[in-house]
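Dear colleague,

Thank you for sharing your sequence with our group. We've completed the structure prediction you requested, and as agreed, I am returning the results in plain text so they can be pasted directly into your records. Please verify that the sequence below matches your submission; if there's any discrepancy, let me know and we will rerun it promptly.
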Amino acid sequence: MSVTVILGTQWGDEGKGKAIDTFAGDFDYVARFNGGNNAGHTIVNEYGTFKIHLVPSGVFYPKAKCLIGGGVVMDPSVLIDEMNDLLKAGIQLEKRLFISPRAHVIMPYHKILDGLYEEAKGAGATGTTRRGIGPTFADKISYNGIRWSDFADNDLFTAKLRMQISLKNKIIAALGGTGLDFEKVRDEYRGHYEKIKPFITELFPIVQNGLKTGKKFLLEQAMGTCLDPDWGTYPFVTGSTTLASAATGGLGIPPRNISRVIGVTKAYTTRVGAGPMPTEIKDDERAASALREVAATTGRVRRGGWFDAELTRFAVQISGIDRLFLTKLDILSEFDEIKICTGYEFQGKRVHYYDLDSYQLDKVRAIYKTVRGWKEDIRGIRKYKDLPSKARAYVETIEKLVGTKIGWVANGPEREAVIKKQ
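Please find the predicted structure tokens below.
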């Protein structure tokens, strides 16, 4: 029995897609268990470059069967576009992609409300992706959600949708938006359902039979640990649990069956949208510019900062991470000196991430250790011993500070740009 969870240890965008692609060829099932199309995994392989939002990234390995669990919320138009792109690239989906009927569906009013809520908050906006993720999870919890299973009964779907559009149009109008036409939404979504219907099946027996017969499962987390609604920087978080334990509710994996947890961490820190980020670089435009990125899902610019060992150590502890997969080490090659945050100081006292709420975290002073950079191109290196000594020292300093070993180091976007450390 082998169940491996791959999760992000920061605020998302850690490079989970690359880690998943590295391992997926050895697994029978690759599954998504949380989040929605607010997350994007970038995959570079012989088929091309893909930004995967809903279909598990293991889809590129013909042996792997791909599961989308009930813990995922789904925008059907995004899913259909993604499936079509994969089919055009020659990727087979029939009898390989299985979608839980328990998954909730992102409706047009969810996306409208997501935007209207952000606008109404003004300066207090939380920086959502405006993909409708939060409102969909809110409807799930408040018994107003629509699941794929509802579409199977046309009368039930029609009644539920009519009720929800009646309710949501009142809220939309109150916030200054334009209401939705029931018949137009009904017809559009019935069309989506017909395209997705062949892939919808109950996953519980698939998962249970797989576990009993010794099949190997690779579970993909969306987002990052510190975007968890309970343990993240609330309210600047996502709508679903992002911890390894979410695999139980989101897919039906018993906790005791999880045999390994791999944490993906970037060699520096980035964050999209609002929220505290203790190591954000604000006083050195050259360094900040070098570490800024563009988000795969939204196209928004990611804020750049130094590696935060305090944050990553918390992620390691709360999900029981066995090994780290360190990404984008090559990006740091241009620096003469590199800073690593070893902890925080708040109101004159040393504190931990878990001691603080988001507003306090935004006021901490990051305590740094400065190390020498290696100042040479490390792309193309495939053995750990061949890395410059200062690059190895940086990796090993991170290991000591976060309390777990780094098993893999990525030093480029290509599939083969992964160094196995141990």
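Summary note from our side: DSSP finds 13 helices and 20 strands in the chain.

Kind regards,
the structure core
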